[in-house]
């Protein structure tokens, strides 16, 4: 007896099957003749063997990769100033850091190969790829290697590197959300229509229905369910195929397998007129799972945008001074050494050195300190600080990419890409859970088919096991909660660096509050006011409003809002007051001279206003010709939920280094504290 054995020909590199003799290409590697599907795969395999990187094939296993395109795309020069300004963080001694997206990464073997090829280039100091995002963190020495050579080494092994752009990433995420919405809409439309016919079928099951009508309802349901199965279910089919290629079990496999059995069993019933159809289940399952995925995608996009708003709230243009000329440039164009002109309310775009004698900055974004800080000439100014003075000059010591704001952004980016501990655990559990469910499904089918000899019951019960036991909730709950959490944090001005923080926080047994904006709103209001002449309040209010009208200092802004509120309550309008001269005195307050030049008004601390001893009572004083005429005490407003929150926490609370500020808050939440001041510390 003659036995014909057909040997399957596969490409040595990408493992795809070669069906035609014309496609076969041979090459000798380490003295052994190997088969390839194209010259691209042959070239890369030769490169890997020459560099002793054949472990790639051990890691690849039976994974089928995409054949390598032999044609090389036109490579643009990456060693340009614009590239380094927009994409690269430049550190000391030529050390650079950037993010690269790498296309065609399919498995852990691809990750290993790209990291090895890049890291073996002279001058590359660090490479780390996030498999989920396909993004590589690259640290290299620009004095020893350039980006063109690194990109070329990655292209030479068949992958597609590109510089990572958050804007492009957000656009891609937006398109993905739109795609999910369309698939969800198709599933929802079909589900709604099928349910109308299903009502008739359900009724007919209990009370009887004409065969012609039942057959019609089955065929109409089939028509509506088919686009759902093919179009709406494509992401789950694709996910199943990818999981099988990687020899891993996933939720998609269970979901797609269960829905496929339900769909094709219903097709059989429709054509044979035997039994009941489950087209409604096909649409229902895909519709609701897609709703969950769409909501997760939308919230993830919103969370990213919200955090982006916190980190990147920079004006589109800044003014720099060159050769006594003022030039408007975008933040990304600012170079080291540029002299930046900042106005009231401008956020500092890059790290720099203050060149103005004195200036005030709000650094609460960076430090959490509620009060503005005074800086003098030569002090370092960090990007993200808010300028509270006029005509302030800062000499740039870094570009946007190298500045503090960019580093914070990178930290948050890494945090958003990483998974919290509980999600890593559920991901592992879902794999085991999927295996158990598949075994149960096989056991269910075997018992009903072989023991009870009932094929229909075997199929229906297997479908029930696959669909009911699908770990969609397990796999989606934690990521959804994590994304919603990030959105809520961003909405409340909180940036989470470590995704495990919230889980760790749940085990804390002692919590200390610090900084404005936690127990308080961070918004000041008038708690106490004094007038030399009580009936003269309208004139004092008017003086305050006219002198503080051009100030962006937080205290001035809060005081003006409070005064305007009081005038509305009293149904009064401020008196128009004009000044001969008005100026801001850094570190002290505001001074204004009346039109006749006989009176000098001052607003600020007591020493500045009355030329007396300074006090630390937190009051704002108003005086004329060094004589006090009024004073105001501003206090932060305690959040209404603060008392209940602290009561529930049941822990010691230490906060506010300033004793007077601590007394203010303690007085507002007096029921929460017992004992002496020492207890609070």
From TrEMBL:
Protein name per its UniProtKB record: E1-E2 ATPase
Subcellular location: Cell membrane
Species name: Leptospira weilii str. Ecochallenge
Primary location: membrane
GO cellular component term of the entry, any: plasma membrane
GO molecular function, one term: P-type divalent copper transporter activity
Keyword Transmembrane helix in annotation: yes
Domain (HMA) ranges: 96-162
One family name in Pfam for this protein: E1-E2_ATPase
Listed GO biological process terms: copper ion homeostasis
Family listed: Belongs to the cation transport ATPase (P-type) (TC 3.A.3) family. Type IB subfamily.
Membrane topology: Multi-pass membrane protein
